Amino acid sequence: MDTPDSPAPGLTADMPHKPDHGEDSYRGCGRLEGMSALITGGDSGIGRAVALAFAREGADVAVSYLNEQEDAEDTRRNIQEAGRRCLLLPGDISDSAHCDAIVQRVVEEFGGIDILVNNAAHQAWVEDIEQISDAEWHKTLDTNLSATFWLSRAALRHMGRGASIINTTSVNADKPNPNLLAYATTKGAIRNFTVGLAQLVAERGVRVNCVAPGPVWTPLITATMPPEQVRDFGKSTPMGRPAQPVDLVSTFVMLAEPLSAYVSGATVSVTGGTPFL
Description:
The protein is an alpha/beta fold. It has one domain (12-16, 31-270): NAD(P)-binding Rossmann-like Domain (Rossmann fold, 3-Layer(aba) Sandwich), CATH 3.40.50. The chain is 37% helix and 13% strand. The protein has eight helices and seven strands. The protein has helices at 45-56, 69-81, 96-110, 134-156, 181-200, 219-224, 227-231, 249-256, and strands spanning 36-40, 60-65, 86-90, 115-118, 164-168, 207-213, 267-270. The longest helix is centred in the middle third of the chain and has 23 residues, at 134-156. The chain starts with 35 loop residues before the first strand and ends in a 7-residue tail after the last strand. The relative contact order is 0.17.
């Protein structure tokens, strides 16, 4: 189990049950044809599923990740098998200079950026606030919240009308888990940032929305939560199970596609029936 101050994005190979990213089920129909996307945390979990769906919908995809090279290579293979270009971008998005650099790489490689998905996240399970050091607090805020700001700012320098930013918030924005205090704090802020930025950039023709997942079966869960929490993960939802990453991709595609031209400032909850206010 992860402990505060130790980075743990988690690896798909270490999970007791392999997540479903849509490898055998998602079929695209050209909804993002000719577009280019940057997805943070795109190596595994929700990010990998979204990357696969975007590629099958016709987009070239850049995948930002910390250091999970094996997972990133699997994602690249999925994208390339869909006939699209893939750019792998390892490094730490809690550094603002790295955020600027990877956006520039995407623009140079793909000729622009049409979709930014701020999805990567850091979390640590704690039993007491004293377990959260200054370093852990800043790591969580910089990875989850500051990076969302830095990447959005950098991407907007290159985005034209019809572009979109999609941020991953959480059910924790409305109902914070006290054992994920720092993480839940960032997810509430991301939702607020999304609504504010949507208004700020509306005149540019750029849309900003967020997706609020409930429990999703990803490497971050098994890497950071106690075994008893992992065992019962998602069972308290009305559907009685966690989401698989593929369960979220239709929402991300909908928010990215040009037909959603009047959808901005929205939070779309994907919670298995759990109310999200």
